[in-house]
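Please produce the structure of this protein holding zinc ion.
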Amino acid sequence: MQTSSRSPPFAKPHPAGRWLYPRPEGLFCEAGGFYIDPSKPVDKAVITHGHADHARRGHGAVLATPETIAVMKIRYGENCAGAFQPIHYGETVSLNGLSIGFVPAGHILGSAQIIVEHAGTRVVISGDYKRAADPTCEPFELVPCDVFVTEATFALPVFRHEPADKEACRLIKAIRQQPDRTHLLGVYGLGKCQRMIALLRRSGFDQTIHLHGALVQLTEFYQHSGFDMGSLRTIETGGTDRRQDYAGELVMCPPSAIADRWSRRFPDPATAFSSGWMRIRGRARQRGVELPLIVSDHADWPELITTIEETGAEEVWVTHGREDALVHQLGLMGISARALALVGFDDEGD
Ligand SMILES: [Zn+2]
Ligand SMILES: [Zn+2]
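Below is the modeled complex.
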């Protein structure tokens, strides 16, 4: 049994650990012969959502929501897996005497928690999740279970995200107060970009939003899926725009573009970045962010604790971030918990 040295000793690991356990490729369900979000190509992969550290190319067969499959094809090409089987929220698939179900995780469009039921035990693998409202995806659905596998990206008490609408309003106010400057907002291309656009629209921002080319394809996918993003315009590389065209405007780009040559076309840009990491002032300073917006697509500390309690799980397996801190806290709460020590996940960005 893998436990943090600070956790109280628990009698025995949960019996589900005999048929669901980490391997070098990722979390393996031996009873069903599949991996969940494997970090290397495998025969059968069940994928929680489209972020690159969860959905990789080269698997023999992929079981995922239609949206996750669409994202994988956009990013990696039509033939990025041998076969795809779409599964909608609420559906279950039977395999070797176990059942696999998908329910919304509230993280990004198409993101799912995977419910695996076998030998009278229900395990929920949450993937990445959040409880806060998001106009661009289905809300997280709580599923009572015996074992809950949770992420731990923001699993430290310091991480408390702000209400996302409030952060969007701060940005709108900043744009209106400085009509001579371009506001450059750094966002991740899948999920955060589209959520920020939707939040800004809901808060009454109806100016055209300018997008870096790298954000266009996935944003179009959201539009095709029925989300109204308002007026958008792509910034062409090598286009003929003049610098002053962007004064008073909002430009969204990948975080890396803020620091590179690309951003020099804007007059005296004010930089903003929307991320859960913006809670840490030093991080914002280090990145030269003038307007840090504390918006994340991951659960913050209170959401993690509440969610784990609400599942009623006897045992919690922690992965993907600050495992030790969460395992320790759950130990104090009398909940059996252990770190899964899976490799290949990276949510620095979010
Ligand atoms: Zn994710
Ligand atoms: Zn992740």
